[in-house]
């Protein structure tokens, strides 16, 4: 496939995935509205948790895929750096035109798309990268273990920080009053009038979000704590979710706004999104731009919540809500939804609240962002320096026992020819293209190349291997119907037929 054909197919595939992503988001939003939920969230983050847990497990079960995963991390690095540069340049303009949930999605959605595509390894496509990096096997494995140690360290730090903060605020907490539970139930029903019917249908896409809110009501999990200065919700499971209020008196209007804010966060599943983003930060801990971008994601999640809370409000109510944010400043730690945490973003939040403006849903922008990052997925490729055929194959006990020439029907076992072929074969330098996983051209030992040479190798346990020599490549078959392992070669293997 030529370079122009590669680019053309990348553009076609990226456009298809971008349109599919935009259509899926639009369908999800409409399903929320049709069920009576006034604030339709965009839920981007939960699946990355499964990806983070799956791929390290794959490394343990399938060590041969470890290098492929590291190759994907290079692609994630490139995409996240590109995303951060573009968004930092355009975010002020984007925030003026598009809704906050769209801006949050621009930070999160393309990065998740790049993470899962893994240079199209998951899509089973084999596009050639724009830039190739050559690394030896020892360096590759060293980098892999450094990445794994860093990812586990960051994840452990975030989990421990969350648990310590949770213990600190719940240790001296007391249960809220009955009137406050009644007010929360009223707020919940005003935001999601069909919520009870949805929560009873386990197959509903809204079941878990509604159950998070109802768990607080059912299990008496609204608390007051002297250790918090701003209202927040903490917890990752239904029965362990708590809505915690500061130990101070609120008017009924202030309390209604606080509860409305926290219920919107729960219906948007923002706590799980932040947990998923923490997993993404752990997986890409070596990418500074990823950490920087996650702070903006938190700001945009709060802006999105503000938009939903103040929808339909008059000027006086908006001023009251803005004053509440000013008085409720605090520190956000762990996996929590927080009424007012970021001093940097508070000024912009207040401006958006007091001067509301109709903004676009941004489906086209989200689709374009996904298409852009799918196009650049796999932009960086890694070639693993395997070594020579001597240490990669022959040192494992294999010996050449026959040679198959294209022009002969029978195998050649002439000792002189076998010795000449082995001397040339053992010195071949091998490299592996990590972005190629299936090598369909060689899947059945068939190639359009002419004049290939086949070597039959055997070991003492009578196991056999077939090595097919192509121009600048060799394909190693260890089983009758197995997929080959294909290596690039820096030299050629020739044998003179006598």
**Largest sheet composition:** 8 strands, mixed
State the order of secondary-structure elements, H for helix, E for strand. Answer: HHHHEHEHHHEEEHHHHEHHEHEHEEEEE
- Envelope shape: elongated
Radius of gyration: 29 Å
The count of domains is: 2
Q: Averaging pLDDT over every residue, what do you get?
A: 77
Tally of alpha and pi helices: 16
Q: What class would the helix/strand composition place it in?
A: alpha+beta
For the largest beta sheet, what order do the strands appear in spatially? 1-7-9-13-12-11-10-8
Number of strands: 13
Query: How far apart are the termini?
Result: 37 Å
Helix content: 40-55%
Low-confidence stretches: 118-123, 445-450
Tell me what portion of residues adopts beta-strand conformation. 5-15%
Could you characterize what this model shows?
The chain has 2 domains: 373 residues, no CATH class; 107 residues. It is 54% helix and 13% strand. It is built from 16 helices and 13 strands. A hairpin with a 7-residue loop joins strand 12 and strand 13. The chain is elongated. About 2% of the residues have low confidence.
Walk me through the topology.
Layout: H1 3-34, H2 47-61, H3 66-97, H4 100-117, E1 131-136, H5 137-170, E2 174-175, H6 178-191, H7 195-199, H8 207-218, E3 222-225, E4 232-234, E5 242-246, H9 252-267, H10 270-283, H11 288-309, H12 315-327, E6 336-338, H13 343-354, H14 363-375, E7 380-388, H15 389-392, E8 399-404, H16 415-426, E9 429-433, E10 453-458, E11 464-470, E12 473-477, E13 485-489
Parallel strand pairs: 1-7, 3-5
Antiparallel strand pairs: 2-3, 4-5, 4-6, 7-9, 8-10, 9-13, 10-11, 11-12, 12-13
Helix pairs in contact: 1-14, 2-10, 3-4, 4-11, 4-14, 5-10, 6-9, 9-11, 10-11, 11-13, 12-13
